[in-house]
Amino acid sequence: MPASTGSSFILDDPAPLVEALLADGWRVIGPKLGDGAIVYDEIESASDMPRGLTDEQEGGRYRLREGDPNRWFDYVVGPQSWKKYLFPARQKLWSAEKGDNGFAIEPHEDDFPKTALFGARACEIAAIEVQDRVFDNGDFTDSGYKRRREATLIVAVQCARSAATCFCASMNTGPSADSGFDIALTELDDGGFFVECGSDRGAAILDRIGPAEAGTAELEAANAVTLKAAGMQTRSMPDNIPALLRENLDHPRWAEVAERCLSCANCTMACPTCFCSDVEDVNDLSGDHAERWRVWDSCFTLDFSYIHGGSVRRSTLSRYRQWMTHKLSSWHDQFDTSGCVGCGRCIAWCPVGIDITEEAAAFAAEPLAQEG
Amino acid sequence: MEIHGLGETLAAHPVFKHFDKETLDLLAGCARNEHFRAGQAIYSEGDAADKVFLIREGDIAVEISAPQHEPIIVETLRAGDILGWSWMVPPYKHMSDARALNDVRAISLDATCMRNKAEQTPALGYQMFKHFVPHMAVRFRALRMQLLDVYGTNKG
Amino acid sequence: MAQDPMLPRRYRVKRAWSELSDVSTMELEPIDGEAVPFAPGQFNMLYAFGVGEVAISISGDAADTDKLVHTIRNVGAISGALAGVSDGDVIGVRGPFGSAWPVAQETGRHIVFVAGGLGLAPLRPAIYHVLNNREQYSGMTLVYGARSPDDLLYADEIKAWKSRFDTEVEITVDHAAPGWTGQVGVVTVPLDRTLSGSNGAEVSAFVCGPEIMMRFSVMSLMAAGVPEDKVWISMERNMKCAIGFCGHCQFGGDFICRDGPVFRHDQVSRLIAKKEI
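Above: the input entities. Below: the structure tokens describing the complete assembly.
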């Protein structure tokens, strides 16, 4: 029976899916082992993926461990996210040549082949959907982002376990994705994969394989997997955090967290939704050729808020406050969603282990009286 | 007759308009009319602060001089303003120069006379300070803003 | 917007001249296509070839579609390159961007403009609108403060406005050398004086200048009974993209580039007195 949105199947392992994508001309980006962490990179077969590994994560800590050698996806998210493909860290916007009428501007389109993101987690799909809103804000559309996004296919992996840093359940972004994928895989406890078809494009890929249809038993087993992963989560975000932060800009807790914060910007680089960027104008030596590049920036740098005369956010306190209130509170005003998806990267990759959920809990526990 | 007329003139000034007639008549005893031509010095730095001026017409520049450059006008005062507060604070000496920018008509109040009346009648002293201090506060706030030199770092 | 909002369009400098020692004004005309209409208070991103791009408010008359006018202070490499252009030079322009002074909606009211320093430049298009349609407004006052008499922008034009019988113009400087017969003092002093002779409830105020000057001016306006929803200010923050993508200009939940730069005061009053927002 041909696949369609909502239909489900069984696969023994992910290899046929990777092969089908490659055969259909997709560049496949998936998890790989790199520098002691799970990173995202181009894969040529399922065997490129780090089968048998699992991770341990805590505030300021990330370690890979040998796990069950038969398990494909027992690690969760690493330091990178898919952001680096859809919103590259360095991106040429245009170039200009001196000439008649001053100069001529040539728009730049980077080469982005049709790309399958293989192994995207629920929180990561939520993060992509958050950035979809950022780069199509009602008034303006980022044409490069749109082009890359439209050339992207998503193969989700529903999480079978959570790291100690995960809190997607409280953000309602995981551990299983209900939508936003073309195909979703759930690695079942007894081995094998429950496969959901999420789109026509996903169906076309699945039809190349022709997998066996799943039954109720497999569906229930898959639900149990992600339910168990949700149950493993110990961290959470208070529900009322948007209002809580809006009303506690003068709370003494900001000074306490600023004592620890190094203003290193790791959290913003690791965050899958952080979108701030700077532009660089570059010249060649002749001065006849100029280019504009867009590069990732961070609200933790002093220059970020520079206006003539000085920076607006001079203290670490103000920069941490900007990041956290933006992520959890003002993001709602801007994009009608939280900027946090509960992936926990900012916790694990903070060199001093600052924990956004612990900070949020401190405001919830002892809020200042509401401003009159 | 002259004294009575000054009482009415005082009553027309924004600082004194809330005073009762009795108080105004008392203060009028310390008052006299003043007239300065354009460019005329009203007082100079170091002079005894023996008068306070209530400006009725015209504009006055308050200047500070320094040896290495031209005097700087730090403030201009207009009709309705009060010129001089050094009379309230020992050693009762002016710390700036005041110059008429155009034809100025003012009422001066003799500082010794005012201080004596305030000492003798504390209720009058209190009333007087209550109405003088807000004027000073407005000018201090303005001077604080001047100190920031806000236009040095401006949008453009 | 048909064109990619990140791509500058080329404009030729019709005429450029020096306003003050570090401030220049330029008139621009498009090389590629038609002039783009703008509303008073909006800004453009101006690009100096190979140097970079900076946000500059539009300071000309929106009704005059023949030329685009910008006044620029030389405060760095980019603004220096732009302030130094000559007739015939070509620069890049993206825009116009941002919110506008809603001056056309405030008919029937006493319009009070409060400008500090170069803040007069973004207000000038709104001033032109009121002057061009003066009969639609019950009054017009401009209170303008600058650092010194040498720092007064558009001095000849101000003189002409001052000579009109239907406008009130108050100029003050922070300090002056003897010989200056005008006012010395901060902008709130003549503002307070002007307001004391007006009915605050009938005033619609447009304030532009350094943030501190705007905060103090707003206090004076409120004290005089001007309704909070009849006061507009123009905010400044770092801007890189002008289209809400780069994140630099955030002020709480607002992007100054899209939601501003012009805000009704009650939209930003919660945050404006907070430090380092």
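Note for the figure: The interface with chain B takes residues 308-310 of chain A (CB under 8 Å).
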